[in-house]
Specification:
249 residues; Endonuclease I-creI; 2 domains; 8 strands
Length: 249
Amino acid sequence: MINTKDAKIAEISGIHAGDGYLRIRASKHEVDISGNIEEKDYYDNHVIPLFNDLFKIRIKGKFFQPRNTYGFRIHNRNVANLLIDLGFPNGYKTTKVKIPEQILNSDNKSLIKRFLRGYFDTDGGLIFSKKPYKFKSNKHYYPIIIFTTVSKNLVRNLEIIFKKLNLKFCKYIDIRKEKNWNDETIFRFSGIKNLNFFINKIGIKNPSKYSRYLIWKKFGFCPPNTTYQQRKDILSGKLDPNSFYEPIV
């Protein structure tokens, strides 16, 4: 077990690793965390209350129109200093980010799981594939959890915590041909066993991502390339998930 404060710090660490940015210049301490605009419910109902409760502050969410994201930007020395103390870099972090040492080296799996939940909710993905069985190939029913990063530090760190949690994964590198693009390392966790572990032991707090699971749970498949609103309509009965597929001839 872990105390409530440590649990919140671990999850905030995962959230910042995925969606956060930190700037400290002279007396200016700025923390910027935002995600896809479809994740507004996640930020309003989970991320912002989590920060407000831990730091005893009052954050309000906002749209960042130029980058088409939703989240918050605050100037708060306590929040910034905590992130620095945890080992997060000041400024550009994409290729340098890593898991805080006190989480990475912990034998407490609950602490690791809370970090992983925050990181999955912001930077992980849940998709459903037609593979591997051909007789069901018309529908996307096979669950795959994905983590992608260009940080070599984070790749090594994730391997460590996945092994601590006894998660079997496939890892491969996507070599980018575009100029000035970094190669990506992709972790994949396939199958119902891994999905059930994530749902039951780690949890998903991001409703946009969780809606995919709920559709799969209800219908046995989840069509790809849907919006969050379409998924809500499917779950409320306003939209038939079969309508996303051509009839089998």
